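Predict structure. Input: Acyl carrier protein, 81 residues.
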Amino acid sequence: MLTDGELRERLAGLVAEATDGEVEAAEVLAGTARLADLGVTSLGFLRLIDAVETEFGVEVDPGAFETLDDLVRDVRAREPR
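Output follows.
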């Protein structure tokens, strides 16, 4: 299992991939801004959710997160024990 820091880094990387690099992982990791405020579009959110569900085997609630920290908490809460 990934540490919280490793999970944050991986999820930030998935944000960058989901936005085709329009939003860089470093931007996501730099603060607590809402992902939409960083430039993640609705299509980017859909791609991000799909990537997270595929990689971590959890179902992500699209309304459960606005920030990277929200997403980390949501993934952690849904991880199999």
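The CA atoms of residues 31 and 68 lie 9 Å apart.
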